Amino acid sequence: MSDPFFLPVSAMEMPRYAGIPTFMRLPHVGLDDARLSEVQVGLIGVPWDSGTTNRPGPRHGPRQIRDMSSMLRAENGATHVRPFEAVKCADLGDVSPNPADIQDAMDRITRFYTRVLEAGIVPLTAGGDHLTSLPVLRAVAAKAPVGMIHFDSHTDLFHSYFNGMMYTHGTPFRRAVEEGLLDPKRVCQIGIRGSTYDQEDRDFARSEGIRVIPIEEFHARGVEDVMAEARDIVGQGETYISYDIDFIDPAFAPGTGTPEIGGPNSYQALQVVRELKGVKVVGADLVEVSPPFDSAGGTAYLGATVIFELLCIIADQLSAQA
Amino acid sequence: MSDPFFLPVSAMEMPRYAGIPTFMRLPHVGLDDARLSEVQVGLIGVPWDSGTTNRPGPRHGPRQIRDMSSMLRAENGATHVRPFEAVKCADLGDVSPNPADIQDAMDRITRFYTRVLEAGIVPLTAGGDHLTSLPVLRAVAAKAPVGMIHFDSHTDLFHSYFNGMMYTHGTPFRRAVEEGLLDPKRVCQIGIRGSTYDQEDRDFARSEGIRVIPIEEFHARGVEDVMAEARDIVGQGETYISYDIDFIDPAFAPGTGTPEIGGPNSYQALQVVRELKGVKVVGADLVEVSPPFDSAGGTAYLGATVIFELLCIIADQLSAQA
Amino acid sequence: MSDPFFLPVSAMEMPRYAGIPTFMRLPHVGLDDARLSEVQVGLIGVPWDSGTTNRPGPRHGPRQIRDMSSMLRAENGATHVRPFEAVKCADLGDVSPNPADIQDAMDRITRFYTRVLEAGIVPLTAGGDHLTSLPVLRAVAAKAPVGMIHFDSHTDLFHSYFNGMMYTHGTPFRRAVEEGLLDPKRVCQIGIRGSTYDQEDRDFARSEGIRVIPIEEFHARGVEDVMAEARDIVGQGETYISYDIDFIDPAFAPGTGTPEIGGPNSYQALQVVRELKGVKVVGADLVEVSPPFDSAGGTAYLGATVIFELLCIIADQLSAQA
Amino acid sequence: MSDPFFLPVSAMEMPRYAGIPTFMRLPHVGLDDARLSEVQVGLIGVPWDSGTTNRPGPRHGPRQIRDMSSMLRAENGATHVRPFEAVKCADLGDVSPNPADIQDAMDRITRFYTRVLEAGIVPLTAGGDHLTSLPVLRAVAAKAPVGMIHFDSHTDLFHSYFNGMMYTHGTPFRRAVEEGLLDPKRVCQIGIRGSTYDQEDRDFARSEGIRVIPIEEFHARGVEDVMAEARDIVGQGETYISYDIDFIDPAFAPGTGTPEIGGPNSYQALQVVRELKGVKVVGADLVEVSPPFDSAGGTAYLGATVIFELLCIIADQLSAQA
Amino acid sequence: MSDPFFLPVSAMEMPRYAGIPTFMRLPHVGLDDARLSEVQVGLIGVPWDSGTTNRPGPRHGPRQIRDMSSMLRAENGATHVRPFEAVKCADLGDVSPNPADIQDAMDRITRFYTRVLEAGIVPLTAGGDHLTSLPVLRAVAAKAPVGMIHFDSHTDLFHSYFNGMMYTHGTPFRRAVEEGLLDPKRVCQIGIRGSTYDQEDRDFARSEGIRVIPIEEFHARGVEDVMAEARDIVGQGETYISYDIDFIDPAFAPGTGTPEIGGPNSYQALQVVRELKGVKVVGADLVEVSPPFDSAGGTAYLGATVIFELLCIIADQLSAQA
Amino acid sequence: MSDPFFLPVSAMEMPRYAGIPTFMRLPHVGLDDARLSEVQVGLIGVPWDSGTTNRPGPRHGPRQIRDMSSMLRAENGATHVRPFEAVKCADLGDVSPNPADIQDAMDRITRFYTRVLEAGIVPLTAGGDHLTSLPVLRAVAAKAPVGMIHFDSHTDLFHSYFNGMMYTHGTPFRRAVEEGLLDPKRVCQIGIRGSTYDQEDRDFARSEGIRVIPIEEFHARGVEDVMAEARDIVGQGETYISYDIDFIDPAFAPGTGTPEIGGPNSYQALQVVRELKGVKVVGADLVEVSPPFDSAGGTAYLGATVIFELLCIIADQLSAQA
Lengths: 322, 322, 322, 322, 322, 322
What we know:
6 copies of one chain form a homohexamer.
Chain A: E1 41-45, H1 61-68, H2 83-86, E2 89-94, H3 102-118, E3 122-126, H4 133-140, E4 146-151, H5 172-178, E5 182-192, H6 200-208, E6 211-214, H7 215-221, H8 223-234, E7 238-244, H9 266-274, E8 280-287, H10 298-321
Parallel strand pairs in A: 1-2, 1-3, 3-8, 4-5, 4-7, 5-6, 7-8
């Protein structure tokens, strides 16, 4: 039987626009809160965009995602998972970022996630730009490299920008491979598209064994076939899911800094997550929602819905283990 | 030969942005107008959203839909129906709502539609929130229950909200079945999706024999197959069409209060109406356009186009009968 | 020495866009929280707009005001009051409204405020539409009528709307006088303007002894002179402050439902509050911020700043009493 | 006693967002309507911007002004004039423009206004760009030149643009003087500002005896002093009022094509009209509202309010004559 | 080896938001510039919308497209063409339009393009409304009629508007056929949809042998099949490509004046261009991007991406010839 | 006689929306351009916001300011200065920033300005956030400290943020005093307001002799009196002007990251610059325009107009010296 403390308030009782907005109207349980040890899945905001090389804004992402996530309810309409009853979920608050120092900010993020993991909590992150994934992986993969299924229009495997800057939102997974956080043979990147400067990132992927599925292949093969391959690649090992909102076509997700034309629609955006069933997810993130480019909040609402789908996958898996 | 009085002004003569905006640039024929008796299809606005439990705004819908409907012309590009020549159409104006009293407002709507029906006019409504359909059905189905094809992301079959409130935009069709306005065996709901609190609405549908086609089934089977089933369900009897703009994916229709991710695209949104050919439509509505959430008017334009497609179905049927 | 629990986080340490947004980054202390008894000033949201007769939206006000209030800091730049050190302040959360039943909603509000007042807390409200003030006054003036300084472009003294609806955002103070909650001889309304249907509200004001200062007089006499008169009118008795954001010109506060052209500018909007120094304020509200009409949040930021000024007045007075 | 036909519906009975939007909710009386002869003041839309040399949009002005004008009520709050009771007012609809031919469009406008004037109606125009005033003046001043009080940030006295184009929104009053429609000695231009290419327009003004009051002088002397001079200049003769919305500062009126920084505020914008009391106004216009640059409608609402003030001046004068 | 002068700056070195925005960050080479003779493909802006019969705005198109085109990089992600290395490209600036005289404006455009063609440059145009194509074709097809593949929701084959106006954005290709600029047997129009006034344009198409592929056929057959037919129609002869942004569904391209519901998605929007491989393209345009209807720039970004795809086709063909 | 090369194109010949947008339609003269040595005043963009501690965006400022600056013409309407004829002006382009490294970015800026100053050019900067002023001053005051008149709502004299970060947009002038770039006795800060954390910045100002004029004093004394004092403070020595757009009230300038309620209006915003006549200006900047918070561009247009006024002051002074 569910502990009412961990159940979101129903909009049949209190309208969705009411109340201080936490993720999905969950209780806020800070890292120093006595109930932290009970939490199984922790929703965490990383309001940070120091890795952004073009149009900033993802630092405002967690707040708008929290706001729009009030629209979500108790049960997944497609899979019928009821995540908040299956596992204990909470909003763990935001990592306090340092917008003026990238290294300090990354250290703060890794420390926060290390504490979360030590408490036995699966972290589910709302970014923040994509550099966020690197300090998170430093905590998640602290003991051993993990696999990754990565939805994006960019590989984020570049070496450096602006004359040697090695930490931007275009480089996190290059660094993660170099640091031994990712097992490149168990990494699959899906939806890659858009114009490029060169093939440096693809060359790196090939040399390391990372599987890159470009959007043309995605559209030609369809969601089910592509996701079956992705599940094969990561296998039964521990796997991180990284979901850049710019994976989705910009008509559906205009609120992001580096959109690329011709992506999946919103239905496919949810389908790919539902096809993660069975993957051993040890952490996940949804990044690059940039409110200044979509003040109406549609992108944040789509992002919140993707997070809900990710949560259902994690909850389903955790409750199956129990 | 058509009576010029009932023909919209052509934009080849007067630009679309000119003139006081009525629906599709039709003449305004009020209920006390001498020419009311000539009208065959009446476009009616219901500027009302007292049934809204979340984000208000549909009270502003009719005005923005009228504005954007100036973009429409004389002939359906796909079906080649010319509705304004086939039947006499008019803008009957708005029902004067009472925003401060739900029961009084519903009474006003039912009285208005009763007069319209007594004049032998098929009503085509621009809402308003979805509670609008209930007082309209009280007039349309005053003598006998009707069937219904219902496009929506929600069933609107809930029992009550907020500790017993029985009249909201989530309950109209529960009430309509209870009041004997709908024949549940001849009701088909298409496009249902999104997270839910529970299965109460689906349980009610099952127990009453209402057919619910969730979005997963819609996407898997395709428009033609689904609509063939819908036509079978309603058969040759009198049928009401209720079209909630949130049936369509929010990238296409952001201007609505309770969007759900992963719906049909705009082409499918029109196709489903075209597939109503042959259904005996005794009334139709397009509801939940909420201008405050799409000030640019794209949602209202899409809504106006859906209304035009509905009008073509009705006009085609009426002229075939004549 | 201040209790750190009650001090907002500084943006010199954690950026303003980070963290779950409470009013002014204060701690959230619910009505059942053990620390409620320590709170001296409580910031309360009333997400409700059922009294709105025209363009809805204030139900979304508290959330946007909370968001924008992150911009505020510890010390008033003009008066040098440091409210959070002077008195213990907290965000008491939102009253859970019932958007479908006006009477039930008003009862809920009055009950919430009664509990707040019983705890010895001065309530500072973020609305909600102006009908909010009525159920709040039912709690605040439960024992004896209070005086009121009311900033607005409308008197809100009308008898009824829509054929007898007596509870709308145009009637709260008529009801409050009738119910003995306000002492009309100690009521001053400032900034009244805009077109009107008739003089019914002014006639009522005159007959009851309410002082109405129209905008023409405000602009001609200036802030200091007008406010000296207002202070004289309310004298040393208990006084409620009600501040409708549409008091301010719509260029400064576009996000509201019934704007009137030609109001005060933003500097005057703050000055009038600073001139309340010495008034015995037993409660205050800032109402009618409507986010759908200003998604950029400038109106909410202005509203949050007015609330901060009101808080400084209250804190200054309470600490002077101590 | 007023004829109810000519009275706008009250929002105390029917909310402002309801109904097909005519100017100020007045009856629509077309030029062929039997009741035209009863009308005393006619509100006319000119949806046209072919004179625009920079950012187009005023062709959409009349529709948005009609929409926002629903906010206005029966009585002027400052002057207590009740225009709809004082004189019979109607919405005469829009002149059908020709967006592809400037000369044809001007001819259409002049013909429309000639019919209006022949019916004994004082025309009150919602533009349209400022070239609109020229074909209107050709009708209004067909028999003898009139005086003019002109509120604007530009003189619109230029000779030509783009290698000899003599009909743009920068030239109407040069043409009007040349055509003998304006008596330059009885013309006063108020609020002129912004950068210029040269002094050609000012030289023309000086040589013809047109009085130009730049914004610096306006701010230094104040509304009352400036307007006393303006009234002296036009004297007791027939006078046209032309009001460009860009007279007002762009913070108050962003929805216009050629804004200039540093104009009057919204209160002054209304005051200058109120100071026209006693001027013999034979026609007036409010031009250059451009909805694409202010989709929220604040500029149109300000424009509608200026039109209401102009209407009060005209109604007051006409009823005084009666 | 590429001349660095003709290579866009990389965003790996200078961020995309920096620098004066030319098309795709190319060098600006005016018609009088010494390096004009080296240019092989010239990107040209035509900031003009005098042919617009409804909602204006495309005059602002080139500037917003230039701004958003900074997002594009060196290599096509799908076809791997590197256009800036394959051929020498430059931004040739804007044609200086005359917004007050259609004939003069068309003459200016034709003269500009004649000079471009005399310099041996393939012109790639960013409009501007669709009338732009006519004066461009007068230069491109000065010697012999060309074929055309035309993506649009309208045929633009109408005879005239507004009582005889023969030059609007609804008539360019009627005129082009009449003037012998297009070989109608080698013209294919794809994506046609939306309501119509009559069949006049289709009748003209039929009588001249123009192939019109309506959207229903497009959706039923798919991109590859339709484009194979289009390539067959134009064959190996010289062919012009005209791409109206309203070909694409308005959810993807809201920033346009005459949107029609139910068009292709953004992926198909790019696919159709990629399928032009092998067509002998002698000029191309992308028209009807209207920034006032999409200030966020998503439409312009989509338009810029279409232009990039067109450029890749042209560059690939030119370099294959070399 | 003026060199036509250095004169902006007139909008009487080419409309303002046409052409690649440089500052005020001036020629682009890069640092390596042969004509650099002729330039007397250089307009420079610094697209950079790494110093921002709250809401980012000023990196997009220069591009939007260039776009809106097309609205400006040849002559100052108030002072009649014709800057482009008085001195040779050019757009020197943008400093290429490094968004990922604050120190490297500041070095790039200082190097750029050093070259500009060595060429004898007075730099006039469009930022960028306020940290921009520090590296600019390192070039401008390389030889001797300068005085400064600083318009802002914040002193920007703080020591550090976020646990020791010494280079943010809240610290530039603290650093500049410490580095001997500013003579604090010749520094005057005008318009300071808003809530604060503490008095640390004011204490520093007092201890160094910097004159701070808070907004209350500004409003009480008026522009002329305040500016007379400011001129006295800087005297006849070399003086830098730094103008933060948030000096102006947010209703006039919403597009900025840290707005403060209650500032000057737009007319005062220009007046304060005009009152700089006679000051020996050796450089000036206008910073903190943040396009994501005002996509309509009103703030950028106001900023461009302030830059034009600054240019007129500099041009007037330089031509008087000649």
